[in-house]
Amino acid sequence: MGALKYLSKLCIATTTRTKRKSVQTVEIKVKMDCDGCERRVKNAVKNIKGVKSVEINRKLSRVTVNGYVDPNKVLKRVNNTGKRAEFWPFIPYNVVQYPHVSQVYDKKAPAGFVRNVQQAAPLPNATEEAITHLFSEDNPNACSIM
Fold first, then answer.
1. How far apart are CA 14 and CA 98, in angstroms?
2. What does the alpha-carbon distance between residue 102 and residue 119 come to, in Å, rounded to a whole number?
3. Are 28 and 86 in contact (CB under 8 A)?
4. What is the C-alpha separation between 11 and 6, in angstroms, rounded?
5. In this structure, what are the phi and psi dihedrals at residue 72, rounded to the nearest 5 degrees?
6. Which of 115, 21, 117 is CA-nearest to residue 66?
7. What global pTM score does this model have?
8. What digits encode the pLDDT tens for the residues 99-109?
9. What does the alpha-carbon distance between residue 86 and residue 83 come to, in Å, rounded to a whole number?
10. HEC readout, 13-36
Protein backbone atom coordinates (compact mmCIF):
# COMPACT_ATOMS: atom_id res chain seq x y z
CA MET A 1 0.00 0.00 0.00
CA GLY A 2 2.91 2.38 0.51
CA ALA A 3 3.73 2.34 -3.22
CA LEU A 4 0.16 3.28 -4.17
CA LYS A 5 0.16 6.28 -1.83
CA TYR A 6 3.48 7.42 -3.26
CA LEU A 7 2.24 7.14 -6.84
CA SER A 8 -1.04 8.89 -6.02
CA LYS A 9 0.85 11.82 -4.51
CA LEU A 10 2.91 12.13 -7.70
CA CYS A 11 -0.19 12.15 -9.87
CA ILE A 12 -2.01 14.83 -7.93
CA ALA A 13 -1.16 18.22 -9.39
CA THR A 14 -0.21 20.40 -6.46
CA THR A 15 1.53 23.43 -7.77
CA THR A 16 2.41 26.08 -5.29
CA ARG A 17 3.37 29.07 -7.33
CA THR A 18 5.29 31.68 -5.51
CA LYS A 19 4.59 35.26 -6.34
CA ARG A 20 7.46 36.83 -8.20
CA LYS A 21 8.77 40.00 -6.68
CA SER A 22 8.28 43.13 -8.71
CA VAL A 23 11.18 45.21 -10.00
CA GLN A 24 12.12 47.67 -7.30
CA THR A 25 14.58 50.47 -6.81
CA VAL A 26 16.05 50.42 -3.31
CA GLU A 27 18.02 53.46 -2.17
CA ILE A 28 20.24 53.16 0.90
CA LYS A 29 22.36 55.72 2.72
CA VAL A 30 25.79 54.30 3.58
CA LYS A 31 28.83 56.30 4.66
CA MET A 32 31.73 55.27 2.39
CA ASP A 33 35.13 56.90 2.71
CA CYS A 34 37.36 55.02 0.28
CA ASP A 35 37.40 52.73 -2.75
CA GLY A 36 37.66 49.70 -0.45
CA CYS A 37 34.44 50.57 1.35
CA GLU A 38 32.69 51.14 -1.95
CA ARG A 39 33.93 47.83 -3.36
CA ARG A 40 32.92 45.90 -0.23
CA VAL A 41 29.38 47.28 -0.31
CA LYS A 42 29.01 46.74 -4.06
CA ASN A 43 30.23 43.13 -3.90
CA ALA A 44 27.91 42.35 -1.00
CA VAL A 45 24.86 43.74 -2.77
CA LYS A 46 25.47 42.47 -6.32
CA ASN A 47 25.58 38.86 -5.09
CA ILE A 48 21.96 38.98 -3.89
CA LYS A 49 19.65 36.92 -6.06
CA GLY A 50 17.54 39.12 -8.34
CA VAL A 51 19.80 42.18 -8.43
CA LYS A 52 19.99 43.70 -11.91
CA SER A 53 22.18 46.74 -11.28
CA VAL A 54 24.02 48.50 -8.47
CA GLU A 55 24.93 52.19 -8.60
CA ILE A 56 27.05 53.84 -5.94
CA ASN A 57 27.42 57.57 -5.44
CA ARG A 58 30.11 58.04 -2.81
CA LYS A 59 29.71 61.83 -2.74
CA LEU A 60 26.06 61.54 -1.64
CA SER A 61 26.70 58.32 0.39
CA ARG A 62 23.98 56.65 -1.66
CA VAL A 63 23.62 53.09 -2.98
CA THR A 64 20.90 52.42 -5.55
CA VAL A 65 19.93 48.80 -6.24
CA ASN A 66 17.55 47.79 -9.06
CA GLY A 67 16.04 44.36 -9.49
CA TYR A 68 13.71 41.73 -8.09
CA VAL A 69 14.83 42.19 -4.49
CA ASP A 70 13.43 42.62 -1.01
CA PRO A 71 14.45 46.04 0.40
CA ASN A 72 14.94 44.69 3.92
CA LYS A 73 17.22 41.95 2.61
CA VAL A 74 19.38 44.51 0.80
CA LEU A 75 19.61 46.68 3.93
CA LYS A 76 20.55 43.68 6.05
CA ARG A 77 23.26 42.64 3.59
CA VAL A 78 24.77 46.14 3.61
CA ASN A 79 24.70 46.21 7.42
CA ASN A 80 26.58 42.88 7.43
CA THR A 81 29.55 44.58 5.73
CA GLY A 82 30.22 46.52 8.93
CA LYS A 83 28.85 49.79 7.59
CA ARG A 84 25.94 51.56 9.24
CA ALA A 85 23.14 51.80 6.71
CA GLU A 86 19.59 53.10 6.53
CA PHE A 87 17.00 53.59 3.82
CA TRP A 88 17.50 56.83 1.87
CA PRO A 89 15.71 59.40 4.06
CA PHE A 90 15.79 62.36 1.64
CA ILE A 91 13.58 63.52 -1.21
CA PRO A 92 14.12 66.35 -3.71
CA TYR A 93 13.54 69.84 -2.38
CA ASN A 94 10.97 70.79 -5.03
CA VAL A 95 8.66 67.85 -4.20
CA VAL A 96 7.89 69.00 -0.65
CA GLN A 97 5.08 71.50 -0.26
CA TYR A 98 6.52 73.18 2.86
CA PRO A 99 10.28 72.43 2.95
CA HIS A 100 11.02 74.62 5.98
CA VAL A 101 8.51 73.06 8.37
CA SER A 102 10.14 71.63 11.50
CA GLN A 103 11.80 68.20 11.10
CA VAL A 104 11.93 68.51 7.31
CA TYR A 105 14.88 70.83 6.81
CA ASP A 106 18.08 68.96 7.64
CA LYS A 107 21.55 70.50 7.51
CA LYS A 108 23.06 67.04 6.88
CA ALA A 109 20.98 66.53 3.73
CA PRO A 110 22.79 66.71 0.38
CA ALA A 111 22.29 69.80 -1.73
CA GLY A 112 18.81 69.93 -3.24
CA PHE A 113 17.32 67.40 -0.81
CA VAL A 114 15.24 67.59 2.40
CA ARG A 115 14.27 64.89 4.89
CA ASN A 116 11.32 62.74 3.88
CA VAL A 117 8.84 63.27 6.72
CA GLN A 118 5.13 62.67 6.46
CA GLN A 119 3.93 66.14 7.22
CA ALA A 120 0.57 67.70 7.55
CA ALA A 121 0.37 71.04 5.81
CA PRO A 122 -0.26 73.89 8.20
CA LEU A 123 -3.91 74.77 7.89
CA PRO A 124 -4.75 78.47 7.63
CA ASN A 125 -7.44 79.93 9.85
CA ALA A 126 -10.93 80.14 8.40
CA THR A 127 -10.85 83.94 8.49
CA GLU A 128 -7.50 84.07 6.68
CA GLU A 129 -8.87 81.75 4.01
CA ALA A 130 -11.97 83.88 3.52
CA ILE A 131 -9.97 87.10 3.22
CA THR A 132 -7.49 85.54 0.83
CA HIS A 133 -10.32 84.24 -1.36
CA LEU A 134 -11.89 87.72 -1.59
CA PHE A 135 -8.81 89.15 -3.30
CA SER A 136 -7.73 86.16 -5.38
CA GLU A 137 -7.71 86.08 -9.16
CA ASP A 138 -10.10 83.12 -9.14
CA ASN A 139 -12.87 85.27 -7.66
CA PRO A 140 -14.79 87.03 -10.46
CA ASN A 141 -16.12 89.69 -8.03
CA ALA A 142 -12.68 90.66 -6.74
CA CYS A 143 -12.59 93.91 -8.76
CA SER A 144 -15.93 95.05 -7.35
CA ILE A 145 -14.65 94.72 -3.78
CA MET A 146 -11.66 96.90 -4.47
1. 54
2. 9
3. yes
4. 9
5. -65, -35
6. 21
7. 0.60
8. 666 666 667 77
9. 10
10. CCCCCCCCCCCEEEEEEECCCCHH
